[in-house]
Automatic annotation (TrEMBL):
GO biological process: glycogen biosynthetic process; UDP-alpha-D-glucose metabolic process
Alphabetical list of Pfam families matching this protein: UDPGP
Binding sites annotated in the UniProt record for UTP: K137, Q200, G231, D262, K405
Reaction equations catalysed: alpha-D-glucose 1-phosphate + UTP + H(+) = UDP-alpha-D-glucose + diphosphate
UniProt name for this protein: UTP--glucose-1-phosphate uridylyltransferase
Superkingdom: Eukaryota
CDD domains assigned to the protein according to its UniProt record, in alphabetical order: UGPase_euk (cd00897)
UniProt keyword annotation of Ribosomal protein present: no
Region Disordered, residue ranges: 1-28
Alphabetical list of InterPro entries matching this protein: Nucleotide-diphossugar_trans, UDPGP_fam, UDPGP_trans
Enzyme Commission no: 2.7.7.9
Function: UTP--glucose-1-phosphate uridylyltransferase catalyzing the conversion of glucose-1-phosphate into UDP-glucose, a crucial precursor for the production of glycogen.
Amino acid sequence: MEWLGLAGTNKALPKMPSNRRAGSPSEAAEFTALTKRDSQMRVEAELKELVATCPEEDKAGVEKEFEGFKGIFNKFLQSSKTSVDWPKIEKLPEGAVRDYKTLPSPSSNEIKEMLSKLVVIKLNGGLGTSMGCRGPKSVIPVRNDLSFLDLTVQQIEHLNRTYDADVPLVLMNSFNTDEDTEKVIRKYAGFKVKIFTFNQSRYPRIDRDSLTPVAKSCSANTDLEAWYPPGHGDFYLSFCNSGLMEQFIVEGREYCFISNVDNLGATVDLSILNMLLHPTSGSKAEFVMEVTDKTKADVKGGTLMQYENHLRLLEIAQVPKDHIEDFKSVKTFKFFNTNNLWINLPAVKKVVDNGTLDMEVIVNHKTLDNGQNVIQLETAVGAAMKCFDGCLGINVPRSRFLPVKKTSDLMLVMSNLYHLRNGTLEMSPFRMFPSTPLVKLGDNHFAKVKEFLKRFQTIPDLLELDHLTVSGDVTFGRNVVLKGTVIIIANEGNTINIPDFAQLENKIVSGNLRILDH
């Protein structure tokens, strides 16, 4: 997190004692402390004014959300140092990360009982705007006209029907996605899946200079830009506040499996659940993070570290600038966080009730449409790992990390690289390599889903593809086959149309349609 100078205060500050020379360290520290206290007081007063604009029936809920906001805002004010002390990072202890292949499979007569202890939670707060779509990202069609949400419901229903179980699906929505999601899930009424929803908090964006909320009313409809959902680290407080966690604990459920709704590889894994419920030694783990082997594409992603005698998530924002290359090293940090998490529900309740939830604050800089510079304070769900006992990493196959963030990812999951079975994408047995190809599509012509789909008569055969780069005005005909490394570059003003049934293997296609061996 970048420390922001606290500017824009207009209240008079107490005079500094005259026996200290101006600009001394002690004087600067006192000035900073006074300014922080002033910011806290002003924010507290403005939040009360915002609550006063709420309908009476909403005030209690808003006040509870604002308590969470005040906590993250005060931590932001106090945290002048956010990077870890690099020399304190220790080598991961023996057994801190278990190999997925060593996990025993449960016996078939245990599975129904095991599933009665599980809740599946999908993080569903994001919009599809980055891919040019309106509404929740989870309703974007990704395969056979089925959306992320359709596939998730299919997966859980198949699990419940196969084992006569009743695993519930819980969606953590944001105020941006809640209304549309509630409409969509009505179509699943006939499925053997109980679907619950709750909303993550709604926090006010902060003016970067004055450090005060830009919102003037609690009504998000009148000024949508003034509000934001504060990252998936808000899960813990919002889940508790919703009453759902208490309900599931009373039902005897012990673990929740949390993942991003756009990660098509994040399915319920019975071997991991078996390990959690039937540990071979010691007590049950409270927090398990699925990690996978880091590749060059993942060098900026979070990883695991041992720090102050505890297993913790390390994000690039916490890394001192002179150690960025160390952080990116695949040799130093072998694992990459998939954000697939298994967390003990009673342990979540204990951490929240005891007030010991502690996550690093992420400062996200934004510019509103009117040019106003704001910040929004967020947290990441995996950062709470350090608050739990018995933490563990599991090194899972890459197939459990299949996110769709860009149309290049969408191209992969729509292709013949995968078969769809009961809502789950499985790598084709005809793919010779377990890894997926590296695909880079130019932003100007391929970034939006609608534009992307127009450029393919059919998605090419990618079974033997290693690397694809496409830039410029390029279209693909039907039944194109791409193998090895293929680079297609249409210069500005040029158009390249790859014809039907073309087979490109280790080729460079340039702006004048010359096809060269790579």
